[in-house]
Task: structure prediction
Amino acid sequence: MTNQISDETIEYVGILAQLDLTGQEKEDAKADMEKMLDYVDTLNELDTKGVEPMSNVLPVHNVFREDIPSEVDGSKDTLANAPEKEDQYFVVPKTIE
Result:
């Protein structure tokens, strides 16, 4: 391992993450962080010249339907499911005194 994480760094990360870690958990976290940094170093050694950046490994397509205005008003169907209604409105308990 070439990357060394200090005890102070682990303490600081624990404070930021609001974690109360035991001594063994701190040592385990330190070892995990060192492994992650070593892996990033390994990735940095790769030759990426000529490789286009990508935001997603799978092709992303717009799955939204065409926005077509219509005259259909579904309020009657919606109100049909209401446990309590008055005219065109839902009746709900009062929440503010």
In short: The CA atoms of residues 79 and 85 lie 7 Å apart.
